[in-house]
Amino acid sequence: MKIPAWRKLMRGASLQRDFEEIRDLAVRYIKEETLQPLKDMVRFAAFGALGSLFVGFGLVLLLLAVLRFLQEQFRVFQGSLSWLPYLIVAVIAALAFGLTLWRVVSGNAKRRLKGSR
Fold this sequence. Notes:
This protein is mostly helical. About 85% of the residues lie in helices and about 0% in strands.
């Protein structure tokens, strides 16, 4: 008497082993294709945010240095013109902010969008 093929599978519990292999393969694939890119993206964003904080802090210190330089070196700004160094530093800060926004808006993403049309 010949044994059906499905009985042969059940005898060695290979069907259960096959299901476990498929489950392990699916879990590994999900981790590789979803979790790892997500971790990479979070790391990229964290380093970008930390770098932005450092650059911003450095810019504030640089603007403060320019203000102190203008106040100390040019005694003309004493008295009624004491607000002028603050205005000069505010204009420099606005220019730096505008330059930063211009570079962000006209960055690589805009060039990629133009190229895809």
